[in-house]
Specification:
The chain has helices spanning 2-17, 44-55, 67-81, and strands at 22-30, 35-43, 82-86, 89-91, 94-101, 104-111, 119-124, 135-142, 145-152, 157-161. The protein is an alpha+beta fold.
Length: 162
């Protein structure tokens, strides 16, 4: 019986050390402001690694003295890997900033001049150029209705109809 308990304990402990690769992007339509409010939650070490890989510069998102460089790198990377089309019209992400909280980074964007829409097409390939086990979870909220979709590598597109 004790041996069985140790096997479960070992399995449980390995779960903490087994890496998983996931990002969460939430897009909320603010009808009053006619904007899309976008936040991307990404593991800090994965984001630092992909920025270094793509731009050839070491990145430490906790180093506040390099904030301007980090802003430029994040803007460039996310803009290449996250795109939206509202009712057939491409929209432009405007970078707001980022926050690092423990092991995660929250990147914030806004899309202006988006009145009501019926369909939102998304392309999200964040971190797929880093790991082929990447999962990108998408949440879209319009008029209080929330729809979600999970993108498993290599899939990187989703459509939301409201």
């Amino acid at each position: 019986m004790a041996l069985l308990s140790y096997k479960w304990l070992l399995f449980f402990m390995l779960g903490f050390y087994h890496p998983f690769y996931v990002s969460v992007t939430e897009i909320s339509h603010n009808a009053q402001e006619a904007t899309l409010e976008v936040s991307c939650k990404i593991f800090a070490d994965d984001l630092e690694e992909i920025l270094k890989k793509n731009y050839g510069k070491p990145v430490d998102l906790g180093a506040l003295q390099q904030r301007a460089l980090h802003d430029a790198l994040i803007t460039g990377y996310v803009s290449k890997n996250l795109a939206m089309i509202a009712d057939g019209k491409p929209v432009k992400l405007n970078y707001i900033g980022y926050e690092k909280e423990k092991e995660s980074v929250f990147c914030y964007f806004e899309v202006r001049d988006v009145p009501a829409f019926k369909k939102l097409d998304l392309r999200n390939s964040l971190l797929q150029d880093l790991n082929d086990q990447q999962i990108n979870i998408m949440h879209v909220i319009v008029k209080g209705a929330r729809k979600s979709y999970k993108l498993d590598y290599p899939k990187n597109t989703a459509s939301f109809v409201f």
